[in-house]
Amino acid sequence: MNFKKVFAIMLCLTLLLVGCGKSADTKDKDSEDKTFKVAMVTSAGGLGDRSYNDSGYEGLKKIEKDLGMEIKVVEPADVSEGEKYLTELAKAGYDLVCTLEYGHADVLATVAPQFPDTRFAIFNIVVDQPNVTSVIFKEHEGSFLAGALAAMVTTDESIDKTNDQKVISAIGGVQSPGIDKFIVGYEEGAKYIDPEIKVLKGYSNSFGDPAKGKELALVQIDQGSDVVYQIAGGTGEGIFEAVKDKNVFAIGVDSDQDYIVPGNILTSMMKRLDMAMVMLAEKLEDGTIDDQNLIELGLKEGTELSPMEHTKDMLKQEYLDKLEEIKEKISNGEIKVTDVSKE
User: Which H or E element spans position 10?
Assistant: First the structure.
């Protein structure tokens, strides 16, 4: 009798262990077979800006192609639609919902707690929620390099697109800490090279108004600027038209824009949003994104100047060497660049 009881108990334990094993195996297999879903909400101006939004979309397409994930992109007609789309995407079961619009910070802080199983990401601003990853680019560092290069070029009489004045300029989409961090870094970089450099500043109050961008750029060029830094998204298309018409230089932003007006775009301050998007998707896939509430990306991690394919031959080697020297000094902390977004 005792033997039968022992046998019965052992049989039950064996069946229980087999069942648990199958359950665990099934769970692992389900995890391996899962197709992750990633959505991106564009910032003001939407796709077609050949800058910030398009860079993010390039990353999204890489996520689909290289990681096999399902993707979706949403272009709000207005920043105020952020809450609507963030909520809809979370309800639709997207595992990672990224917004490129820093103006969505407040609504994201409200929406994220309602969907604890959804991972959200926002760029250029910090949202302190357990299921939000904030990605901060150190644009002020890359802009310091852009300003240093602009200062060296504007005083070089051997370059035919410059004049005899120590004047450069910048045009932002809106006046805000997120845009001013570019402009302040740019000015600090220029004055690091030559304290007498004058930096003109303007704001278009739009990221999608090329006509306004051209108007502002022409005014700055008439005031002596021969290098115009555009930090205005799609508005920058008009800035590029202006520098082409006047045969001076522009500096592109966010992605490599040098090809748009070859020879007239001195360089571009790239922050590789495409790489950041892929990085987030990889962290989603390997399960480490839940431990990443804040990611900062500076000169060491992808905030950099473009290769200057169309203008490098115009530049003296000493300028390129100086840029490398400055980059190293920023990276090791010897040069501190002001980040006004943290003030």
Answer: helix 2-33
Between CA 187 and CA 168 the distance in angstroms is 9
Beta carbons of 273 and 27 less than 8 angstroms apart: no
pLDDT digits (tens, 9 = 90+) for 274-311: 999 999 999 999 999 998 899 999 887 778 999 999 99
Residue range 314-328, pLDDT digits in tens:
999 999 999 999 999
Secondary structure (3-state) at 202? strand
* 19 burial type by CB count under 10 A (0-12 exposed, 13-18 middle, 19+ buried): exposed
Distances (CA, A) of 66 to 253, 279, 327: 26, 12, 31
Contact between 210 and 235 under an 8 Å Cβ cutoff? The reply is: yes
Residue 117 CB: number of other CB atoms within 10 A?
8
Neighbour order of strands in the sheet with 37-41: 70-74, 37-41, 96-99, 119-123, 132-137, 294-297
Read off the amino acid at residue 305: L
Instruction: Residue 218: name the closest of 234, 202, 231 by CA.
Output: 202
Which helix (H) or strand (E) segment holds residue 132: the answer is strand 132-137
* Rounded-to-integer distance, Cα 52 and Cα 182, Å: 14
pLDDT at 213 over 90: yes
Report the alpha-carbon distance of residue 261 to residue 309 in Å, rounded: 12
Q: Pseudo-torsion of CA 141, 137, 67, 284, nearest 10°? A: 140
Whether residue 46 is predicted with pLDDT greater than 70 in this model: the reply is yes
Runs of H (alpha helix) within 35-92: 52-67, 82-91
Side chain identity at residue 313, one-letter code: D
Torsion, Cα of 205, 206, 212, 213 (10° steps): 100
- The set of residues, in sequence order, having a beta carbon less than 8 Å from that of 146 and lying 6+ positions away, is 185, 186, 189, 229, 251, 267, 269, 305
**Sign of dihedral through CA atoms 300, 302, 308, 309?**
positive
What does DSSP say about strands 37-41 and 70-74: parallel, antiparallel, or unpaired?
Answer: parallel
Kindly state the tokens that stand for 266: 């001195």
